[in-house]
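Reopening: structure tokens for the tryptophan complex, inputs below.
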Amino acid sequence: METVLSGIRPTGNLHLGNYFGAMRNFLKMQDQYNCYFFIADWHSLTTHPTPGDIHKNIRQVLAEYLACGIDPEKATLYVQSDVPEIAELYLLLNMNAYIGELERTTTFKDKIRKQPDNVNAGLLTYPVLQTADIIIHKATKVPVGKDQEQHVEMARHFARRFNQMYNNDYFPEPHPFDFTGELIKIPGLDGSGKMGKSEGNAVNLADSDKDILKKVSKAKTDSGPTVPNTPPTEEIKNLFTLFSVVSSPDTLAFYKEQYANCSIRYGDMKKQLAEDIIAFVKPIREKIEDIYNNDAYLAKVTKMGREKARESASKTLKDVREIIGFRSF
Ligand code: TRP
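Re-run output (same inputs, fresh job):
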């Protein structure tokens, strides 16, 4: 069975776009593949979070993944820093990663621009750590968005380089697993494209009813149709798409009809949309909160994840040491 691996840095909350996007696919994948889902907390240190924030954010991601239906019995759900084997493989891979290629990485060049006062070595070798994450479990499929494709390509190069250096085919080559074609793209509330964490246009799964109401009432609309049966503008199409995932088909049809005959009142429509998003998000948010506050359950889940991940990782590391020439006496 092929191995799928996905990592997420513990910053911010999951939003509806993640829910209908990556998360939907993770739920399918956990039934079909050998899946590793982990929280990349070492990676998050490159931006210097406070100890309090980092702990809170790890807990939040765990709670959100579990509330969305990631099953720790089916998939291996773990925290990166619980698996020291990854750090050792990272050290070894660093010896075959060249400064020039690391400096040319797009995300590194972006970070230099964004945090010029904190251009640390961890940022430079970020793709090496990501490679260790992936190949320590011999993962071949890495579900990522466009922005991470270069990192997976580098992981493929580093895996291949290791194999060539030691004249074997120990590591399989990882590939980006692009599933976005199959998905409904969830738009943001700002009339532009996709819902995203950094765009400030998202409804989060952890948002309160009040947050949602506020965000939806600020959603961009147009000046209203004046000619019957004009095709909806981008802004309105986006709101219809949101209706299509959280409301009944009747509700969507009702507002489409009103748009078509120019009787639509955006205030009423947004009120309805907010109500339907609230009804959709509320049970998920409550589940997240329950899990977030359940220390015993979180301890159990992370212990199980740690054990499964370390079992797989230590097997790889034992082989790698042997291949490199570190042999016991
Ligand atoms: N770099 C990824 C991101 O920013 C997170 C990540 C770390 C990751 N290690 C990984 C993703 C391994 C996939 C595989 O989103």
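The radius of gyration is 23 Å. The longest strand covers residues 3-8. Marking as resolved unless the reporter disagrees.
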